[in-house]
Design brief:
230 residues, mainly alpha, 8 helices
Amino acid sequence: MTTDAQEQSAELQAIRDVDARRALVLTVSIAATVAFVVLRLVVALSGHSPLPVDEWWHNLMVATETDVGIVVAWVPAIVGGTIGMIVIGILIVLLLWWRRGRGDAANMACAIVLVVAIGAPMASIIARSRPNDSLAESVATSFPSGHTAVATTVVVTLGLLLRRWYVWVVGAAWVLLMMWSRTYLHAHWLSDVIAGMLEGLAVAGLVWCAVEALRDRRAVRSDEPAPTES
């Protein structure tokens, strides 16, 4: 009886922990969405011109620009570019499918596809110009940063799926490096990369919550007894 009670107590505690984690992720995702909308409104009210903090950060990047820094900044820019993220995205999805099953693989695939499907048209509609002295892209529009959005989406999704502290630490460093890279190469304003980070955070969290809810529904259905024939 004691063993059964302990097992039941452990199961209840595990359920509470999972529910608390999902509530936290959902709260952060909604907060990121609200913050993104607020930032979007601020940029719109400025006439899509650079904000004062954008100009300050841009001048700082120009003042600290070196040949070595440019080479370093191009590394995440290339890795996080269209071709790089297609290759890396496919590899991550395949590895997740192999090691953790199709559920986690589908979670990652859906998150990446959704963040691109939202961000690319949004950038075209907003049509904010990039800095005039961009060392990278100069044609496409600037808000939000697609590189940063996809990088954040991949990192947050991996962190939620793998639940390892070092994934979060390394992932956060990669996102910050990407944000620095895009502004160091003058391809984006600071508010662009912040918006990309918020977009990725929101999409990754909401997709994860949706996938987990679907998993719960399937688990409940599988536990239901099959109907008996009369």
